[in-house]
Amino acid sequence: MIGSLGLLRRLLAARSGVAAVEFAMSLPVLLTAGLFGTETANLAVVHMRVGQLAVQIADNAARIGDTSQLSAHKIYESDIDDLMLGSNIQAGKLGLFDHGRVIISSLEVVPGTADKQYIHWQRCKGTKHVNSAYGAEGAGLTGTLNGMGPPGEEVQAVQGDAVIYVEVTYDYQPLMTDMFTRSGPVHATAAFNVRDSRDLSQIYQRDPTVPDPVLGCAAFNSF
């Protein structure tokens, strides 16, 4: 009994050792803060990458077409197919079309009117079930379409020209857990005027006998 009491006194008086208990108690807080910071940083990077992809797709879509100097440039379904394929490669590990959707719209003026806006054609790619916030192909022909963009900040086309408007929606894929990033899908838009004189009548097929795939918006698929 005396030996036990002496040992207890020595333990109570001891001032050396390790902070194992304190570390164990603080570890959950440190781990949670680290995970939150990592996921938040990754979410910010994904927002930036999706925004850059939207700009790149819209810019490239405004440039595609043949290079004839004798007539207005024609665009082909194969051009849009290549554009979508390139954006998928550029997106890399994001898996843009596996977890999201790209919608390309050509905003133009209704033929025979001064400035009535409508979506002449629209092409889509991706598995996410989401539609354009401004309507499907043909929107504006029978109703009022002020343009495309946030209310009060809509972009509009002018006669004989077109605006390529791109909407990208992507479901964020967390690194570890989504408990820190439940903020909904990442969404980005971009708009560019077509660069050169473009044949706005239609999208052509390079070989009508062996037509290239048409990326219509009724399908929800990836590559």
Structure description:
The structure is a single chain. This protein is of the alpha+beta class. The chain has one domain (22-193). The chain has helices at 2-13, 20-63, 77-91, 96-99; strands spanning 100-109, 117-125, 163-170, 186-193. It has a 4-stranded antiparallel beta sheet with strand order 2-1-3-4. α2 (20-63) packs antiparallel against α3 (77-91). The longest helix is centred in the N-terminal third of the chain and has 44 residues, at 20-63. It starts with a helix and ends in a 30-residue tail after the last strand.
Keywords:
single chain, elongated, alpha+beta, 223 residues, four-stranded antiparallel beta sheet, 4 strands
Describe the structure concisely.
This protein has 223 residues and is an alpha+beta fold.
Radius of gyration in whole Å, from Cα?
28 Å
**Could you report the average pLDDT, rounded to the nearest whole number?**
87
Compute the number of strand runs: 4
Largest sheet: 4 strands, antiparallel
Helix content: 25-40%
- Tally of separate helices: 4
- The number of distinct structural domains comes to 1
**Low-pLDDT runs:** none
The end-to-end distance, rounded to whole angstroms, is: 79 Å
Quickly give the structural class: alpha+beta
Order of helices and strands: HHHHEEEE
Strand arrangement, largest sheet?
2-1-3-4
Query: Shape, please?
Result: elongated
Strand content: 15-25%
